[in-house]
Amino acid sequence: MLQRVFNFLTLPRLMGLFIFLFCLVGLQNYLLGYGNYNNYLMFARPFDNLLKDQSIYGLHPHLYFDNYKYSPTFAWLMGPFYYLPDLLGIILWNLLNTVVLLAGVWFYLSDEKDPDRQRRTALLIILLEALITAQNLQSNNLIVGAILLGLYHLRNERVWQAAFFFVLCGFIKFYGAAAAGFFLFYPKKPQFILAMIGWTLLFAIAPATMIPFDHLLAEYQEWFSVIVVSKLGLQVSVMGIAEAWFGMAKTDGNYRIIELIGATLFLLPFLRFGLWQDRLFQRRMVAYFLLFMIVFNKMAESPTYVMAVTGVALWWVTLSEPTQLDKILLALVIVFTSLSPTDIFPQVIQKQVFQPYNIKAVPCLLVWMRIQYQIWTQPNSPRHSLQTT
Questions:
Q1: 3-class state of residue 93 by DSSP
Q2: Which long-range contacts does 195-199 make (Cβ < 8 Å, 24+ apart)?
Q3: Would 272 be classed as within a structural domain?
Q4: Cα–Cα nearest to 244, from 353, 95, 106, 119
């Protein structure tokens, strides 16, 4: 049965399915009413405050509910959506996110031996999680797609294009720009740093086309304050696991300890300098990064997991001969990460088991540990073909 579905879903059909489903859930959110597309309004309507030279931060219940926590630049970039009717804007917003995600996977996997098969496999793994993000009208599909596009251009030594995508991510969510650290693996390092500085300055001052520069500086100060005092997310991460499973106290000190441990474990493989030019090592480190970015994120919520599951997908396509353990881990991700929030499981199980025990995060943490093992056991001699260990 699964093989028939796989054979039917050719790459063009699968990409078409992405676009159709994600636009459809945008329409569904609009039809369900105002409260179901507040996330979109929170992205599109702060532009109204820029037009009036008012602060985009704080509560603006006449525009949207909740606090705006993104950069002034993101509010400026969302200007075109402000002028659209809500229905059209919602559909185009999900379409933009979908196209960027599809383009990221397409180009990032373009140098594989069988790129179409790898793209199709990766997209099938990502589909459910990306749909959850689209249902929430979040920007995470766009961010992970932009990260992959940045890595693609970086790999091909197009540093200005690469820097553009990384900086774009940074002005939406800080951690998206962290992927720029992979410039260490590639040539043209000084040029890339210059490009990052150039794009950062350009993006940062862009809203000055609408408001005075001193007002813009005040907005950035407010943005940083909002980020510092922001309430924690649902902590679908190692932090949530430590609290629910082991009774860890919910304190900033404990979070910092876990973040330090996670960051140390993530950075240590970079010490394998002899493998920096190895294609398999680079691919594994990208998958490792995408998982780390969410699994050790104290703000992680269900809609952010498209980034982690994209990491799982990119890890999977590096395996020419997956072991039984690899197959089990992938199955766990599909069932307990991607399917756990859906109606396939009764609400009582979701509310009494999956949510309180942060089950969604566990399979991704296990895959992260598996990749770490594969990275450390990879032979020192550079190999440029993708193989499993």
A1: helix
A2: 195/159, 195/160, 195/162, 195/163, 195/164, 196/163, 196/166, 196/167, 198/160, 198/163, 199/160, 199/163, 199/164, 199/167
A3: yes
A4: 353
Is residue 386 over pLDDT 50? no
User: Number of folded domains in the chain?
Assistant: 1
* Domain-located, residue 87: no
Q: Quote the pLDDT of residue 156.
A: 95
Task: Establish if 384 belongs to a structural domain.
Answer: yes
119, 109 in Cβ contact below 8 A?
A: yes
For residues 271 and 20, give the distance between their C-alpha atoms in angstroms, rounded to a whole number: 44
3-state SS, 346-386, equals CHHHHHHHHCCCCCCHHHHHHHHHHHHHHHHHCCCCCCCCC
CA-to-CA distance for 6 and 121, rounded, in angstroms?
Answer: 9
How far is Cα 170 from Cα 223, in angstroms, rounded to an integer? 13
Q: Please list the helix, strand and coil fractions of the chain in percent, rounded to the nearest 5, in that order.
A: 70, 0, 30
Mean pLDDT of 58-66: 87
Numbers of helices and strands, H then E, in the chain:
19, 0
Would you call 80 exposed, middle or buried from its count of C-beta atoms within 10 A (0-12, 13-18, 19+)?
Answer: exposed
What one-character DSSP code corresponds to residue 214?
Answer: H
| DSSP 8-state symbol, 230 | P
Do the domain assignments include residue 141? no
In angstroms, the Cα distances linking 165 to 100, 172, 187, 307, 369 are 11, 11, 18, 16, 28
Question: How far is residue 83's CA from residue 85's CA, in Å, rounded to a whole number?
Answer: 7
In the numeric block, which tokens belong to residue 101? Answer: 């995600």
* Tokens 């294609």 belong to residue: 279
Residue 14 tokens, joined: 């699968």
**CB-CB contact of 175 with 208 (8 Å):** no
Q: Could you read off the pLDDT of 2-50 as tens digits, one per residue? A: 667 677 889 999 999 999 999 999 999 999 987 789 999 999 999 999 9
- The domain of 270 spans 231-389
